[in-house]
Amino acid sequence: MMLNHRCFAFYGQITNRDSVIEALGLIEETSLQDLLTVAFQTWKLDFNQKVLGDYALVLPLGSSLGSSLDASKGTSLDSNALLECFISCSAFSSFSLFYQATSLDFSVSFRLDDFMGDALLDPSAIGQLFTQSYIVPPSTLVKGVRQLSNGESQIWQISPKTIGLNASCLAHKTLTLMEKLKTGALVCLPEEKRFANTQVLNEKPLSAGSVEDIALKQLKDSGFDAFMALPSLSRILSEPVTQISQLKLVETLLNQEGDSYVSGTGMSVLGLVTQDKNMTLPSSTGQLNQRWDKAALDENKTLKGLYKRVFKSNMRQAFKAQRQAQLVLRQEYQSQMLSFQSQDQAGLASAKCELPSFESWLALSVCLPNVWRQERLIAESLGKTIHFSCLDASLIRHSLAQIGQIKLSSELAVAQSGQAQADVIKTDIVANYFKLDDDSLVNLYDAMQRLMMHGYQPVTKTLFKIVPPITAKLIKQHKHGQRVQAFCMKSLTLDHLSRHLNCSLARS
User: Fold this and answer.
1) Where are the beta strands (DSSP E) in 71-151?
2) Looking at the domain assignment, is residue 135 inside a domain?
3) Is 52 within a domain?
4) Cα–Cα distance between 386 and 378 in angstroms, integer?
5) Which residues are CB-neighbours of 311 under 8 A, at least 6 positions away?
6) Backbone angles phi, psi at 261, to 5 degrees
7) Are both 282 and 304 inside the same structural domain?
8) Which of 136, 171, 199 is where one domain is finished?
9) Alpha-carbon distance 356 to 365, whole Å?
10) What are phi and psi of 310, to 5 degrees?
11) Looking at the structure, do residues 248 and 227 belong to the same domain, yes or no?
């Protein structure tokens, strides 16, 4: 469902409504749109440091910042007026907001699949998926479409022209990790007192692969088959399937009784699950960062050795681009850490956390939000209500305060989610879905090789050399079995998704 940037839209929940109303001097009956408009007028780009929860927001402001207060909820503003629009995601968020500014329109949506039809796919984003299994915001799979990072806010000015419009970003801010950690606990209001998405949106923005999908119904009725689930899952995610854990989650939810699901994703990153007692951790952040650098370089070298003959010229830069993207993220990390260290002692004490390693920072800033977003898409497409036990600033802050220590319990995370520990579903267990000797009709490896004959010319055949001598050698790399399996899943689902939505490649 593409959103009208002239209309108010909110997806998610606000968990500190009472304290925001009190801070702004408003009355209890204040509507959600009015509350958020006054909050923006008061706090501007610090909005998502004050308004807590898990949400994405589109807030039209009109030619003056108070004009939307005079408009009834859901009505659009004068189409000929100069419009300012505020878009934002909460500090830690399982929701996404995608946008595209062209000479004809300013388009916004909570879902990438609204932009996918007949789209030009970005080769550099595809390269990120094949080398690191996630895309770093603001990039997306679609060329020219951007996404907000967790904790990011932007103010756009949209002015009409004779034909089309001018859209320009007037100001933007992305919260640093330390600013996010100061936002407090997520779970601070009873469920019945939270502002939820159903109060604003008439239609819940589910993915194209919803529970009405015939293929999903067949999977539920006839028993889970990972190979047959790949096409539906790629449509749910609006991107290629990159992880076995995504399939594991689909299987778990299809077999689960009840409508509620608690995600434990992030527990291992935060040290809230049992680890190997014999494992020794480096004692300093510097040592942790050095270890990560070495592992990243080794992984890049390994993938290059596996894929270099399969990738055509427009994909061969993916390895260099991946390293450059990592260096950009590393620079951002160092900038944030220097800022953190320069705070006074009172500020350090109030943060109540140690200096995180780059690996922890990357997980909390990029990787975990990406996984949370994917899990929400999958759960909602299967008719489940999802809760995230680790999507909580106070819990993350508590974990970082204990950095370097081995923690043996996840009880705190589960308690803060309001669920029993037995309800937490762990999706990081490796499932052995695909085997070399599977029947050829449902054999992941045979199907990947069949792309040499039937691959989608505008995308798959343009990116990859899927020919028998090369693919046979790739499949025989048994010591890299998981990497080979991941390549097969990614290439097959990229082919399906681009063919299904009539996509082609943008120029690099």
Assistant:
1) 83-89, 98-101, 106-109, 120-121, 146-147
2) no
3) yes
4) 10
5) 318, 463, 464, 465
6) -135, 135
7) yes
8) 199
9) 12
10) -85, -35
11) yes
Statement to judge: residues 452 and 428 lie in one domain: yes
| Contact between 17 and 35 (Cβ < 8 Å) | yes
The CB density around residue 403, as the number of other CB atoms within 10 Å, is: 17
The proportion of the chain whose per-residue pLDDT surpasses 90, expressed as a percent, equals 49
The number of folded domains in the chain is 2
- The 8-class DSSP code of residue 367 comes to I
Residue ranges of the alpha helices (H) in 52-92? Answer: none
CA distance 101 to 214: 35
**Average pLDDT, rounded, for the chain:** 81
Nearest-angstrom CA–CA distance, 377 and 386: 10
- Distance, in Å, from the CA atom of 157 to the CA atom of 451, rounded to the nearest integer, reads 46
Domain boundary, last residue among 164, 199, 234 = 199
Edge to edge, the sheet with strand 9-14 lists: 165-174, 152-160, 83-89, 53-62, 9-14, 195-196
- The string of pLDDT tens digits covering residues 307-329 is 988 998 888 888 888 888 888 99
356 and 284 share one domain = yes
Confidence at residue 321, expressed as pLDDT on a 0 to 100 scale: 85
C-alpha span between 419 and 223 (Å, rounded): 28
CB 184 within 8 A of CB 155: no
Q: Residue 122 falls within a domain, yes or no? A: no
Q: What is the pLDDT of residue 430?
A: 57
State pLDDT tens for residues 430-451. Answer: 578 998 888 888 889 999 988 8
C-alpha 238/C-alpha 494 separation (Å) is: 10
How confident is the model over 268-296, as pLDDT tens digits? 777 665 444 455 555 688 888 999 999 99
Same domain (yes/no): 273, 182: no
Q: Are 84 and 40 contacting, i.e. CB atoms less than 8 angstroms apart? A: no
Distances (CA, A) of 464 to 54, 304, 495: 39, 14, 11
504-505 vs 120-121, strand pairing mode: parallel
Helices 214-222, 226-237: inter-axial angle, 10-degree rounding: 150
- pTM, two decimal places: 0.86
Beta bridge partners of 108: 3, 99
**DSSP 3-state assignment of 345?**
helix
Q: Quote the CA–CA distance of 154 and 172 in Å, as a whole number.
A: 4
Distance of alpha carbon 376 from the chain centroid:
9
CB-based burial, 139-161: b 16+ in 10 Å, e otherwise: bbbbbebbbbbbbbbbbbbbeee
pLDDT at residue 165, rounded to an integer: 85
DSSP state of 366: I
Which is it for strands 152-160 and 165-174: parallel, antiparallel or unpaired? antiparallel
> Does position 334 have pLDDT exceeding 50, yes or no?
yes
Alpha carbon distance 402, 416 (integer Å):
18
H/E stretch holding 491 reads: helix 481-500
Residue 507 structural domain: 210-508
Residues 180 and 229 in one domain: no
